[in-house]
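Hi V.,

Quick status before I head out on leave. The structure for the redesign project is tokenized and pasted below; the design run finished overnight.
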């Protein structure tokens, strides 16, 4: 069994863990091409900016748009961003049973977003980052495993 799984690019072997992976989500009857689109759009209260990000052709473009308009980011963003990420990651997996299966197949491996660009969501490239995305994924895996065990009793 693998002890540690690193992910980053959506086309990598564990790329399904990335928010850039193609796994559309439906939230409140709104279609989001990726969890990244949704997450980036939630930084803003302005519906027009949210729609622009929602319609971005790629998750990279959605990310770039959020950077372009960073001066409009909602004032409470730092307080809610972890909850927003946990919500959309959970929705992504629950709406795609194959992804749940793949996540469960990671066993008890430590999941780490190996990003030299991001020491908050990832490991910062040197292993010293906070790896909040990996933590959210491991917490979701544990929750799903607990629910599975509970339902088989």
């Amino acid at each position: 069994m693998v002890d540690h799984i690193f992910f980053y690019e959506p086309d990598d072997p564990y790329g399904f863990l990335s928010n850039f992976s193609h796994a559309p989500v439906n939230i409140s009857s709104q279609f989001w091409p990726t969890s990244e689109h949704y997450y980036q759009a939630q930084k803003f209260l302005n519906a027009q900016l949210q729609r622009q990000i929602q319609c971005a052709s790629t998750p990279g473009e959605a990310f770039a748009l959020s950077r372009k308009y960073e001066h409009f980011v909602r004032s409470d963003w730092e307080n809610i961003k972890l909850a927003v990420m946990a919500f959309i990651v959970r929705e992504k997996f629950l709406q795609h049973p194959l992804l749940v299966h793949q996540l469960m197949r990671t066993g008890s491996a430590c999941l780490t977003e190996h990003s030299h660009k991001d020491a908050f969501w990832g490991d910062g490239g040197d292993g010293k980052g906070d790896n909040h995305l990996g933590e959210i994924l491991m917490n979701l895996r544990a929750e799903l495993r607990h629910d599975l065990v509970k339902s088989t009793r």
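Above is the designed sequence. The first helix runs from residue 35 to 41.

G. will cover questions while I'm gone.

Best,
W.
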